[in-house]
Amino acid sequence: MNAEVFKQVIFNNADKDYGLCPPPLEAQYGLNILIDHFLGHNWYTVMPISQKQVNAEAIYEILRKYPKK
Q1: Are 53 and 26 in contact (CB under 8 A)?
Q2: pLDDT (tens digit, 9 = 90+) per residue, 13-52?
């Protein structure tokens, strides 16, 4: 997903007009977009863990693959 597609998705799914501000977004939805973008659509964990633990694993993988220069 690129920035323009993301913008269309959030504005098209908004329940009302937020003026100049972007509509609110659930944190999990946003994190899922970043996981798809940075780790790929097929990334997953085989561990039987909670969603919060999967989030921590994904963030670790993103930081490991894209270290600050």
Answers
A1: no
A2: 899 999 999 999 999 999 999 999 999 999 999 999 999 9
Contact between residue 66 and residue 38 where contact means Cβ atoms under 8 Å apart: yes
**pTM reported for the whole predicted model:** 0.85
Beta carbons of 33 and 62 less than 8 angstroms apart? no
- Joined together, the tokens standing for residue 50 give 């909670």
DSSP state at residue 55: H
**Domain boundaries in the chain?**
25-69
DSSP of 12-49: HT-SS--TTSPPP--HHHHHHHHHHHHH-TT----S--
